[in-house]
Amino acid sequence: MTYITTASGIPVADNQNSITAGPRGPLLLQDFHLIEKLQHFNRERIPERVVHAKGSGAYGTFTVTHDITRFSKAKIFASVGKQTPVFLRFSTVGGEKGSADTERDPRGFALRFYTEDGNWDLVGNNTPTFFIKDGIKFPDFIHTQKRDPQSNLKSAQMMWDFWSRAPESLHQVTILFSDRGTPDGYRHMDGFGSHTYSLIDTKGGRVWVKWHFKTKQGIRNLSATEALRLAGADPDYAQRDLFNAIDSGDFPCWSVEIQVMTDAQRVEWENRTGWDAFDLTKVWPQGDFPRQPVGVLELNRNPANYHAEVEQAAFSPSNIVPGMGYSPDKMLQARLFAYHDAQLYRIGANHQHLSVNQPRCPFHHQQRDGAMAIENGGAAQNYDPVQSGLPASDGFGHGDAGWELGGAAGRYETRVDDDYYTQAGNLYRLLGGDAKRNLVENIGGSLSQADPAVQDRQIAHFMKADPSYGNGVAAAIRELQEKRDR
C-alpha cells in the first residue's frame, strides 16, 4: 500500500485535517505538513514563456532515409537507417498560457535531437519566414502582439501600426492571415527551421541550408469561423488532438528535407535577385534550390508529466553539434543569446540538469553550484587549467571554419531599397480563389479595427505586392464599415 509522505519522505499521519488548538483552532505552526503543502502550492508556477507560452509536446524518433554525409560530418546523419530520439514542442506564439490553440498565430515547431554528440535544437515555426529581420526589433514587435498597457486588451491598432511601418513583414502577414494562420491542430501542418543554418563536412567545407518538415498527414486548416468556434468550445483542441492520436497509436510523421546553397551559389543568387540569402523575411525559391530528402520524423510517445517534460523543456538554437553551424542571419544571431538567457530566468542556471533537457550522451563541464545543482559534478575537478601548444581543430567539437567578414563595425540600415513585395505578391498569386477571398476577409476584419491612417499605409503595401490584393482588402474593409453603419 502506498502512503502519503512529506517531500522529505516522512510518513504523514493525517492528510485530511490540520493540527489545531482545539477543534475550532487556531492552526499551529508546528503542522509542517500543512505548511509544506501551502508553501509548495504558492510556488508551483514558474514564469511562463514570454512567447510560445502555450504548447504541447511529444517524444519520437528521427530516422535517416537519405545520405547527406557529403554535406555534414554530424554523426546523426552517419548512415541510412540510423535513428535518433527526439522531443518536439508545438506552441502558439503570441498568446498566454491559457489562450486558445486555434487563435490566428504562427505555431512554434521546436525540435530537440538527443544525439551522441549532445543536444541539437532546431527551433522554428510552421512558417518559413518571419515578420522582422533584425533582433533589435523583436521586443517591440512582440509587445504589439501582447496587451495594450492601458486597457490590457489585445490591440489591432498596435499590430497594424507596427506592420504598416515595417513593410518587410508583408510576406509573413500574408501567410498569417491566409488559411495557414489557423492550422487544424499540430499534426496537419508543416514545420520549418526558418533561419538559414549551415552544415560542415569532414574537410571543414560549408553549405548553407534551410530545414523543412513536411507533414505526412496532409495539410489541413480551419476556417476563421471554425477556429473562433473551437476557441470557445475546446480551447485545448490542438493539445487534445495530438495527445489522443499518439495515445491511440496513430503516430504523426513528417518528412525531413533540406534546401542547400553553396556560398558561390549565394553570391550569384544575391546578385541576380537583389535578395539577402540570410534575410528571415525571404524564402529561397524551390525552383532555384529544390528540397532534398533527409529522413523521417515520427512522434510516438506522450510525456508522463506535462510540467516536467513540456513546460520545463528549454530549447536554444545555440545548441548545435559537430557538423553544423550558424549563419549571419541577424535574427538567428539574436536568438542564439536570447533563448538560453530566457531559460536561465525562467527555470534556472541548472535547467540542463532536468531530464527533458539533459543530453543522452556523456558530458563534462566545470559549471557548478546554483539552485537545483542535482549532481553538481560530484568530486570531479571544477576548473580547466590553462594550456598552450594545443593542436588546431582536429575535427572534434564544432569545427566551424567560420565565414569571411567585411566592413567596419556599426549600425547598418538594411531596409533601404529592399524588395518587400515580390515574394508576398508571388504567394498571393499562388492562392486559389477561395483562399484569396479568405485572406482579404481575414485581413479586413482585423485591419478595420485600426485607424484610417494605419489602414491607408498598410493597404499601400498590399497594392505594391499585387493591385488586386490591395483592392480586395480595401473592399473588405468598406463592406465591414457599411455593415457597422447600418
Automatic annotation (TrEMBL):
E.C. number: 1.11.1.6
GO BP terms in the entry: hydrogen peroxide catabolic process; response to hydrogen peroxide
PROSITE patterns: CATALASE_1, CATALASE_2, CATALASE_3
This protein's record includes keyword Transmembrane: no
SMART domains the record matches: Catalase
Gene Ontology MF annotations: catalase activity; heme binding; metal ion binding
SUPFAM superfamilies: Heme-dependent catalase-like
Domain Catalase core: 5-392
Gene3D superfamilies associated with the record: Catalase core domain (2.40.180.10)
Catalytic activity entry: 2 H2O2 = O2 + 2 H2O
GO cellular component, one term: cytoplasm
Swiss-Prot/TrEMBL cofactor(s): heme
KW Transcription (keyword) present: no
Pfam families: Catalase, Catalase-rel
UniProt keywords, alphabetically: Heme, Hydrogen peroxide, Iron, Metal-binding, Oxidoreductase, Peroxidase
Active site per the UniProt annotation: 52, 125
Annotated binding of heme, by residue: 339
Coiled coil: none
Quaternary context: Homodimer.
Physiological role: Decomposes hydrogen peroxide into water and oxygen; serves to protect cells from the toxic effects of hydrogen peroxide.
Assigned protein family: Belongs to the catalase family.
Protein name stated in the entry: Catalase
Organism in which the protein naturally occurs: Pseudoduganella guangdongensis
